[in-house]
Amino acid sequence: MDLTPVRRRSIPDDVFDQLLDRVIGGVVEPGETLLSERRMAEALGVSRPAVREALNRIAAMGLVDVRQGGATVVNDLRRRGGLDLLPRLLVRGGEIDPAVAHSILEARLWNGPKVAELAAQRAPESTADTLDDAVDALAATDDPVVRQRIALDFWDLIVDSADSITFRLMFNTLRTAYEPMLDALAVVMAAEVNEIDRYRSVVAAIRRRDPEGAFAAAHNLLEPATTLLGGALAAARAASEEGT
């Protein structure tokens, strides 16, 4: 487990970042025991309290257990991790993980229609007009990144109207994870953000208080980009298997 001496101003944050990256990056496997606090402190060039603080933060995320005697054991993030890990899993070493990106779009594909359905039932009367304004702004620009940002704001309004704290927190996490991908996914997301009429169909269903119509319209809007990225990933895996 290679560690790099800390040089940044915020020592506790740097220690936390390094240790967390190694836990979620597979450098240490589930069930493995980390180095002792003393040995980690020596490798990092920091104090033991800084290491202890970082380990406590990682333990609070469910990713390690500090056991009797001081041993720190790594947990399986797929069993113990939460949505707050998505942004870190998505971008590692400055590069986007395409499989994680696809999983985010898959989550949108199934959560988005349900949120639209709830919005059709619960939205204030003024919501449809506000959504229409967002779609007008979407139609007024050709910039692919700006269009994605407007689309995020569009969904932000729908999530508010759905009046569900669980969907709100899920959306917040997905948005935080998705925003770093705006430039990289511009081509893929064109299959969604260029379809102005599909956005208008979602708004129309919400306006007429049609939950089933809102669900169907939202799924119709979100499905193409998810399928496109999924197809690209499948092709990449096939090419990789042929080359081995």
TrEMBL record:
InterPro entries: GntR_C, TF_FadR/GntR_C, Tscrpt_reg_HTH_GntR, WH-like_DNA-bd_sf, WH_DNA-bd_sf. The keyword DNA-binding applies. It comes from the Bacteria. Residues 9-77 form the HTH gntR-type domain. CDD domains: WHTH_GntR. Keywords: DNA-binding, Transcription, Transcription regulation. The keyword Signal does not apply. This is GntR family transcriptional regulator.
